[in-house]
Amino acid sequence: MEARNRKLSEWYGKVQQAEIKLPRFQRFEAWDRWRICSLIETVIRNLPLGITLILEVSDKEKFISRHLVTAPETNGRVLEHLLDGQQRLTALWRVFHNNYEWETYYVYVKEFDQFDSDTDLEDMSAYWRGRYYKKNGERYPIWCDDPAQTLHRGFIPLQLLRPEDIQGEIDDWIKDAVSQYEPKEGSGMEELKNFFNFRQRVSDKIKDLRAVVANYNLPYLSLPSTTDKSVALNVFINMNTNSKPLSQYDIVVAEVENVMGKSLHDLEEELQIAHPEVARYAPLSDQILNTSSLLQGYLPNQRGAWDMDKRVMVEQWEKMATGLNRMAAFLKSEGIYDEQRLPTNAVLAVIAALYADIPLSGDKRGRDELLLKKYLWYAFFTDRYENSAATHAFADFKALGGIIRGDKKPDGKKFTEADVPIFSEYSIVEAEELMTVEWSKRATIRGRAVLAVASRLGALDFSTGERLDLNNINQRQYHHVFPDALLKEAGINSFLALNCALISDKTNISIGRKDPLKYLKDRYEWTTEAIVQERLQSHLIPIQELANGGYADMSEKEKAEKMKKDFDLFLRKRAELIIKALKLLVDGHQLSARDLYEG
Question: pLDDT tens, 352-361?
Answer without folding.
Answer: 999 999 999 9
